Amino acid sequence: MGLRRRERNGGDLAETIALAWSSLLANRMRSALTMLGVIIGIAAVISMVTIGRGAQLQTENQLKSLGSNLVFVQSGVAASGGPASRGAGSATTLIWEDAQAIAASIPAVADVAPNLSQRTQVVLGDRNTNTTVVGSTPAYVTVRDFLPLSGRFFNQVELNQAARVAVLGQTVVDSLGLTERSALDRTIRIRGETFTVIGTLEFKGSTGFRDQDDQVLIPLTTMAARIVGVNTTAGVSVESIAVSARSAQSMAAAEYQITNLLRLRHRIVPPREDDFLIRNQADLVNASNAVANVFTALLGGSAAISLLVGGIGIMNIMLVSVSERTREIGIRRAIGARCSDILRQFLIESTVLSLAGGLLGVLLGVVASLTINAIFGWSAGIAFDAVGWSLAFCLVIGVFFGAYPANKAAQLDPMTALRSD
Amino acid sequence: MLQLCRITKSYRMGEMAVEILHGIDLTILRGDYTAIVGSSGSGKSTLMNILGCLEPPSSGQYYFNARDITQLSDNERTDIRNVQIGFVFQQFNLLPRLTALQNVMLPMVYAGYGREERRQRAAAMLEQVGLADRMTNRPNQLSGGQQQRVAIARALVNQPELLLADEPTGALDSRTGEEVIELMSALHADGLTVVLVTHDASVAQNCGKIIRIQDGQISRSA
Ligand SMILES: Nc1ncnc2c1ncn2[C@@H]1O[C@H](COP(=O)(O)OP(=O)(O)OP(=O)(O)O)[C@@H](O)[C@H]1O
Ligand SMILES: [Mg+2]
Q1: Superfamily for B29-57+77-221?
Q2: What is the pTM of this model?
Q3: Which of A116, A127, A248, B72 is most buried, by CB atoms within 10 Å?
Q4: CA separation for the pair A375, A370 (Å, rounded)
Q5: HSE on the CB side for A311, CA within 13 Å?
Q6: Which of A222, A217, A127 is nearest to A169 (CA)?
Q7: How is A182-211 classified by DSSP, letter by letter?
Q8: Which ipTM value was assigned to this complex?
Q9: Gyration radius (Cα) of chain A, Å
């Protein structure tokens, strides 16, 4: 024979793919409906992972923006059987003096900013807004890394005098219909008291569980004397104390020393439980990450299940296809297609089906992700690894769920297949 | 070229096995033009399917070019169907979604020919059976006679040594049937070994050799 024969291979891959594509096109509606399962599954996986990541990244950024090398000391509930609680109607166990002691006697600590806050109404002329009024000290600026955008922060003198001055967050500035310039020297009313605006705070960004720009800073003394009004015999109660350590390395030492100091001051001897809680940024980030990871896994997992259902849909339609095309299989076998050629043809067909669905799903998922990111103002981007994984998963689904129908086709006896119709 | 020794074939019908062919002995030489005749249900198609390696016999030996087919693997028998034997069916058995050209190229795909070679050779085959202007038609855009000629082109495209045709004119009217038979005669004249099943006595008379099957046995061969 004069013809040159290559190694037999049942046609090259590109050709087999083209063949698979044309037989899928022959049943457009059916193929599309089958793909829908995979499309929805993949799109769900990608957008769910994007949502999870976006929320996580957002929280993480927010926690980082709190300041650097931060340790938070939070008030706990006074342990029963302990010394008499410090303030009537107050569950707080920390006082300003605790903060002053931490600053004065712990070398690992750079500075402290106590915090006493209350949600209340702030009024400017005929405008008002509900916001959080925070009483703190001038150290707030350095500890929380929160600089004034215009004007200035209140100083030690104003703190000592319990001056009625206020520094506004940008959300409050907006809510009152002001700008960072026009806000200066205005007189606002908080709980009937008049305050002079001496500055506005830089923009820190929002979302997650708290808007950091939705607050008004006033001196702690003023807060305790005029707004909250829980000056106790022990001194000014505070809800929390933000402590900045001298360096990242000294954070552990700071935490340890703060714990000891506060136990001493609060006369707590183990095994009695501490009436305060110390957490650092890493703890907060880890805690929020742990929650976010579970969240992402749950979302991604339920999306993966829908992908699995899509795969079963593919298997179903491939079984239908094999039984419809029994005669075609018989003809191909009769003119020289080996079992492996038939197997390959149907495997590639199911893989093309699931991959095509996967690609459309990726497209949909990316569009959904971009939309989600735009709506929430997230910068998390698209979960490209999820795109990669879900396409790989599609490939596996195509092969796995195609294997049984394809094998069924390949094992058909040529003559039996030819006789069928 | 091929030799059958005491070939039997039985089908299982539920519990019972029904024997259709009862010990067929048959020899076909290279270059023969053989007609198989016999009444309906006598087992002609069954014999042809065994000759074409589409079905294994239940017992006996089948030597094709001195190889015992019954001892070969499925892949080896598939390759014989692909390259050494061309089979023409009564019902044409073309793939409805492929064009005439694609149908003819199909055996070459499985034989592993390159794309260009396939196209050229399949086109040449279609020209040879007189369908040069119908290459891109699908089977349902072709007449019965044209479809059968496409099927013949497909059977011949890998240049087989043996052409088997099971009632190739069975689904055609007498005129187009004659054309198909003429085509087969011409192929034989070019040196191809041909075995064909027919009901038409005049067609059988033109063949060099006639084998008559009756109730699964060869009653007379000439
Ligand atoms: N797959 C099968 N299972 C059971 N019996 C079968 C099968 N195939 C054929 N037969 C039986 O074998 C016998 C011979 O069939 P075959 O098709 O070989 O006849 P034939 O000579 O080709 O007839 P015709 O001229 O009508 O085509 C018939 O009685 C048929 O019923
Ligand atoms: Mg028959």
Answers
A1: P-loop containing nucleotide triphosphate hydrolases (3.40.50.300)
A2: 0.73
A3: A116
A4: 9
A5: 21
A6: A217
A7: TTTT-EEEETTEEEEEEEEEPP----TT--
A8: 0.95
A9: 33
